[in-house]
TrEMBL record:
Residue ranges, annotated region (Disordered): 48-75, 318-341
Family membership: Belongs to the universal ribosomal protein uL1 family.
GO cellular component: mitochondrial inner membrane; ribonucleoprotein complex; ribosome
InterPro entries xref list: Ribosomal_uL1-like, Ribosomal_uL1/biogenesis, Ribosomal_uL1_3-a/b-sand
Superkingdom of the organism of origin: Eukaryota
One Pfam match: Ribosomal_L1
Protein name, entry field: Large ribosomal subunit protein uL1m
UniProt entry keywords in alphabetical sequence: Mitochondrion, Ribonucleoprotein, Ribosomal protein, Transit peptide
Entry-linked Gene3D superfamilies: 3.30.190.20, 3.40.50.790
Amino acid sequence: SRRFRKMAAPAGRYLWRVLTPRRGWVWPGIDLRLAAAPTLVSAVPPARPYAEKTAKKGSQRTKKEETKKKQVTRRRPLMSKPVDDVYLTWHYERPSYEVEEAVGMLKKFQQLDFTYPKQYVYINVFLDMALEKKKKVEPFASSVLLPHRFTEETNKVLVFTENEQEAEIARENGAAIVGGVELIKWILEDEIQADFYVAVPAIIPKLIPLRNKLRRKYPSTKRNSLGHDIPKMVQHFRECLEYSVEDESVIKTRIARLDMPAEGIIANLKAVIHDMCTFKPLTYGPIVQRLVIRSSTSEGLLLKLDGLLPQVEKVEEIKNADDKEKNADDEEKRVQESVST
């Protein structure tokens, strides 16, 4: 039987090759029958004769809703004070220091690290700009005259005036540039630049082309850069410290040098903080949330705010200051209207 199978297999293959081109003669209509015969596995799925059942509302949740739900992780409360000298910092609250203690620590860090003794002292101030409902304090820039100067550098002040006597007074008090309307073209073309711009009320209507160019540096009574007391304005802006609100309501500025007496560093710090507090009424809470002090080479030390911020009892004084500021704005508008007419 095995020998018969071996002989039958080649014979069958030969017979199939002979009959394949002539299968239409032997079995007429075989091609149509094979094409019409149903296949075991259909390539195209049959069309559904009925509609899919709609899912009930709320029965299934989308993936977006599931991803929104985050697992609530319960954390152990942080401990207040470490017992040992070596500990994991993330298990304890960040220590805060009195300003006198923090300044002493910065001086000690400098001695232990053998760093430059005259390095700058910086503060990082984190602000709360919120007012009632959705209102916020607008980002601001200000200048403050520190009680203890820590640098011999002076700012470049430009004075706008068309009066020869006022121009002479400005030069005597240290103004770098003094002039009138002729300076407008040079400023717009960036041929003249200054750190601060001061003007007298008589010339302010003619400086309107510079409003978009100077922006915050445009002379204004709010910034004490518009007035008749030229010596006072020039002296203030030549020696003042300028700071501004950066992204995420943070102010970073230097306030002193590390080799200064501790009393001088603290006095400069308080002067800057008190100037910042004037931009938000105390009725909405303090504007300073956190205060960090550091030197150029040291870590930041968190300060306790007790004794650094204005007291709530002085709300009336702040309101009076706001009233004075409003009166100054009204006076500035009246000056512009009177001069323009």
